[in-house]
């Protein structure tokens, strides 16, 4: 099988990382193309569940946005469920912010990253059949050579109940909820999952602003949850200045910080009727002048699976 050869039969040498839904491998094809293969940890599927998986794959394959990692192909064979994505440099926003990486993320660049992610979410939410990402966090945002953001794993959260580790995944989701990425009302009857994306985006903005992890057990107990510690301090100028990531403190104005904090507050409010398209408009005006930058992505050939 082509994917087996491209990944050396999914050996450790090609291993890129482990996600809640499966392992990720680098695939190198004879023509020089590099892709990423996600080996989904799917349990034995009924006919209906297989159809659900294939319907989702079909939906995701049609997503076209410069800030979304495109799905190039898939393979369902011998009990395996493989998804093939375009390769983006293996550096996540989480690593760039928290791993001591030498990548510099000044205020202007963080704002561009936030805008790129917001535009991608607005695109997903305004499709004729809206798609919720379902698991937006800094670890699921990849940065390319130009440090432009690319969201990965779009829409895959819906497959959680079909995985072989669904109980483990549920525990993981509960833990993420405790740290702030999942909206408190997530899972309630009639809850719109696109709203959970907006809440998670607010947490992401807070992470970009403070440079802090969503949850950090090394901090004093009252400061471990970034959301609980920071959200009540967003409208106090002195506290806001103290919270800002020291690595970018001198590169942004107090006015921009205040506008950014207002957007965060709107995103994390549970009762407000907010759309991602409105968030995009607000982000474009954070610094007082419109941001017109548009990320462009090079065309790449598709993978035939």
Report on this model:
It is a single chain. By secondary structure, the protein is an alpha+beta fold. The protein has two domains: 2-86, Phosphorylase Kinase, domain 1, CATH 3.30.200; 93-284, Transferase(Phosphotransferase), domain 1 (Orthogonal Bundle), CATH 1.10.510. Helix content is 37%, strand content 13%. A five-stranded antiparallel sheet has the order 1-2-3-5-4. Strands 6-7 form a two-stranded antiparallel sheet. The longest helix has 19 residues, at 107-125. It is globular, with a radius of gyration of 19 Å.
Structure summarized in a few sentences:
The protein is an alpha+beta fold and 305 residues long. The protein contains ten helices and seven strands.
* Count of domain modules: 2
Strand content: 5-15%
Strand neighbour order, sheet with most strands? 1-2-3-5-4
Strand count: 7
Helix content: 25-40%
Question: Any key phrases for this structure?
Answer:
disordered C terminus, 13% strand, Phosphorylase Kinase, domain 1, 10 helices, 5-stranded antiparallel beta sheet, 305 residues
């Amino acid at each position: 099988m082509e994917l087996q050869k491209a990944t050396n039969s999914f050996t450790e040498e090609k291993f890129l990382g482990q996600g809640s839904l499966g392992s990720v491998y680098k695939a190198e094809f004879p023509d020089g193309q590099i892709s990423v293969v996600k080996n989904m940890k799917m349990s034995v599927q009924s006919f209906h569940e297989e159809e659900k998986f294939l319907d989702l794959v079909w939906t995701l394959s049609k997503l076209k946005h410069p800030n979304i990692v495109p799905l190039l192909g898939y393979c369902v064979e011998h009990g395996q469920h493989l998804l093939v994505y375009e390769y983006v440099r293996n550096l996540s926003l989480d690593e760039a912010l928290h791993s001591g990486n030498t990548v510099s993320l000044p205020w202007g660049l963080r704002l561009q990253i936030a805008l790129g992610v917001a535009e991608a979410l607005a695109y997903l939410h305004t499709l004729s059949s809206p798609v919720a990402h379902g698991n937006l966090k800094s670890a699921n945002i990849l940065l390319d050579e130009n440090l432009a953001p690319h969201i990965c794993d779009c829409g895959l959260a819906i497959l959680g109940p079909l995985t072989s580790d669904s109980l483990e995944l549920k525990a993981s989701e509960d833990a993420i909820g405790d740290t702030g990425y999942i909206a408190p009302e997530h899972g309630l009857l009639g809850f719109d999952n696109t709203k959970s994306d907006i809440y998670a985006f607010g947490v992401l903005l807070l992470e970009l602003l403070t440079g802090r992890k969503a949850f950090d057990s090394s901090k004093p107990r009252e400061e471990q949850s970034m959301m609980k510690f920071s959200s009540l301090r967003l409208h106090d100028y002195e506290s806001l200045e103290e919270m800002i990531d020291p690595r970018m403190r001198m590169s942004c104005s107090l006015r921009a910080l205040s506008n950014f904090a207002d957007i965060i507050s709107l995103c994390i409010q549970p009762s407000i009727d907010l759309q991602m398209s409105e968030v995009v408009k607000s982000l474009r005006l954070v610094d007082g002048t419109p941001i017109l930058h548009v990320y462009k992505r090079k065309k790449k050939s598709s993978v035939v699976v």
